[in-house]
Amino acid sequence: MATPDEVLTNARGLHEKGHYQEAVKLYSEVIQVWDVDEAQELLHSEYRQFHLARAYNDRGLCLYMLVEFDEAIKDLTQAIKLDPKLAAAHYTRGTIHYRLCSSQAMEDGGRLVIIRKALDDLHEAVNLEPENQDFQQGLNDCKKELVRLMDGVESKILELDGLNVGQLALLMYLLDSGDPSVGSDNSQRRRNTLGARQGCHAFLSILSRRDWGARYLSALLELRAQELLHRMSLQLPENSEALQRQVQLCGEELLVLVEACHHLNITHRHLDTSIAIVQKMLRLTDSEKRGSFFLYAENLLLSRMCDNLTPLQVYKLYCAALISPEFCRIVDGGFKVTENNVKDEEGLKEVLFFYLIRVLEFNSLLNRIYTDNLKSLLEDVMATYKEEDKEKEEEKQTLIKAMTVLQSYPNECRPSGLCVIFCVTEDRAGAKYEMDKIKSVFQDRLGYTVVTEKNPSNDTLEWYVKELQNTKYNFYDSFVFWFVSHGSEDTVTLADKKSYSRDTFIHKFSLPDNFRKKPKIFFMATCRGNKTIKVMPLGGVNVAADGHPKPWPGDVPLPYQDISSVYYQMDRVIANATLPEKFSFRTDDKGSIFVDTVCCLLEERGGQNLTVVLEEAFRRIHRVLFISNEGEFEGSAKQACFYESTLQKTFLIPDYT
C-alpha cells in the first residue's frame, strides 16, 4: 500500500501533466489521512503540517484549473491557515477573486467586496515573495482593475478630485489605528492588523509606481467607502443581534471615515442615513458627535509630526531605517526615491513617512505607548546635523519637539476623555458642591465627557463595567473615575450602606480592553480609617471626618522586547485622599478637602504633568491644620494624601481652552 508521501508524488505528477481530476482524487486521499480535524496528533510534526498545507494548496490549484472556484477557495484558505506564509496559496486565491470580480454578471457591491479580497491576497503574495514576477504582474493587473471599476462608479461617495497624493495618503492613514493589540473585541483587533497591512501595501505601491499613485489611492479610498455603504445598507431586522453586530463591525469604521473627511474638509455623500443609525445604536452624546472624537489620537499626533518635519528630514528618517540593523530587514529599499524626489514631488513626503509608520506598527515596533523605536530614528536624523550649523537651528528644534511629544500620552481628540463620578450624598455635607466642582472642571475646563452617578449601588457599578466594553469607548484618550463617599481601609461605602471593596472597584474599572495603553486615573476621596495624624494643638480649620475604619539590564536587545501585550494595571494612577487607617476631612459647605484642592489645581494647570500637580495638591493639603467641628477627634490633625502610579509616559492634563 502506497504511503501518503508516495501518493503526493503521484498526485503532483498527474498535476504537472494537466490531469487535474485524477490529481484531485489523490490529493484528497492524502488530506483524508492528514486532515487537521481527524488527526490532530499528526500536526505536531512540522513535516506533516508543511506538506498538508501544500496538499491543500495543490488541490486548490487543480480545482481552480477545473473552474470549481468555491471549492478551490476553501482549500486555499485551509492551506493559508496551516501556513500563513505560503505565498502561492495567497496568489492563487487572489487570482480567483480577481477573475470573479471581472465577471460582469455580479452586482457592483459584490464586485467591490471581491476585489478587496483579491488585492489583500495578491499584496500578501508579493510581500512574501517580492522577487516573483508572476505575483507582481497579478497585483498590477488587480490594481488596474480596481481603478477601472472605481472610474466606472457613477455615484461616488467621496469627493477626492483635486487632492494630491499626500492628502490622499493622510486620509488613508487616519482610517486605521495600526495597532493589532487594541480594540474591544477580536474582530476589531483583526481589522487593526488588516488596516496596518493594507496601509503598508498601499503606500509602498505609491512609492513604487508614482506615475499613477493618486488615481490608485483615490480608487482604494472610494472602494473602502463603497464597501461600507454596501454593508450598512443590508436589510436586517430592527433591534436584532445581527443588526447590533453589523453596527459594531461597520459603524466604528464608518464614523472614522466621516470624521477623517471632516478633518480634511473632504465632502462625502449618501452616508447620512447610515451615520444616524450608528449614532443612535451607539448612544452617542452630543459631545461625542462633535469635535474630532472618532479619530485615533496617535494618528493625529503623528500626522502633525509629519507636517512639521521637512521633506529632507523624512528622507533622512527613511535612510536611517534602511541602515539600522534593527529595521533594515522590514523596510523596503527596492523602490527608487531620492532626496530630490522627496523635496520636489508634491505629497511624496507624506507617503514615505506614513509608509515607515505603518511598517513599524505592522511589525510590532511602534504603538501609542511604545514609541522608542521612532524616537531612536529621529535621534539618528538629529545626529546628521552639525553643532555649528546655526542656519539649521529651526530644523533641529523641530526634531527636538518631535522627540519630546513622543514622551507623553497622545491626547488629541475631543472629548479628551471620559470622567465618571460616583458620589454618595447621605450623611455627607457638601456632596452637591463636590459633584458640581468635579463636573465643572472636567467638562468645561478639561474637555471630558462627564457622567455623574449620585448614590451608586452595586448594580450601578456592574452596569458601568459592562457598558464600558462598548465600541465607542475605544476613542477616549483617558478615563477618570471619582469615588466620593465614606470608607474604611479596604472598602468604600455605597448608597445602601453596603461596603464595596476598593481593590475590586479599581480592578474592574481597569480591565476593559478599550482602556489598554491609555491612562486610567482613580480619585478615591474617602477615609481609610478613623485615626488622625496628630500635631501640636495649635487650632486649625473646622472639618468633619469622611468615614470609619478598616538587577535590571541597561540595554535590552530588540528580540527580548514586547510592545504588544500590556498588563491591565499599567498606565494607571490611584490618587488617595489619605493614608491607610487615617481620616480624610471635609467642610460643611465645600465637602471633601481633597476634591476641592485637586480640582482647583487641575483647573489652573492645563498642559502640565498630572503627577506633578498631584504632588502640589497633596503638599497644600498636608500643610493645613484641621480641628473637629463635631468632636470626632482630639486636638489638631493633618491629612496625608498619596498616589500610586504605573504610568509609562507623562500624562499631560488636557487644556481644552
Characterise this structure:
The chain is built from 24 helices and 14 strands. It is of the alpha/beta class and 657 residues long. It folds into two domains: 159-407, no CATH class; 418-550 and 566-645, Rossmann fold. The strands form four sheets. A six-stranded mixed sheet has the order 2-1-3-6-9-14, covered by helices on one side. A hairpin with a 5-residue loop joins β4 and β5. α5 (87-101) runs antiparallel to α6 (108-128) and α6 (108-128) packs across α10 (213-232). The longest helix is centred in the N-terminal third of the chain and has 23 residues, at 186-208. The model is unreliable at 547-554 (pLDDT under 50).
How is this fold's topology laid out?
Layout: H1 4-16, H2 20-34, H3 46-65, H4 69-82, H5 87-101, H6 108-128, H7 133-151, H8 165-174, H9 186-208, H10 213-232, H11 241-263, H12 272-281, H13 286-289, H14 297-308, H15 311-323, H16 339-344, H17 348-362, H18 372-382, H19 393-405, E1 418-423, H20 431-445, E2 449-454, H21 458-467, E3 479-484, E4 491-493, E5 499-501, H22 502-508, E6 520-525, E7 533-535, E8 541-545, E9 572-576, E10 585-587, E11 591-592, H23 593-604, H24 610-622, E12 626-628, E13 636-638, E14 642-645
Parallel strand pairs: 1-2, 1-3, 3-6, 6-9, 8-12
Antiparallel strand pairs: 4-5, 7-13, 8-10, 9-14, 10-11
Helix pairs in contact: 1-2, 2-3, 3-4, 3-5, 4-5, 5-6, 6-7, 6-10, 7-10, 8-10, 8-17, 9-10, 9-17, 10-11, 11-12, 15-17, 15-18, 18-19, 20-23, 23-24
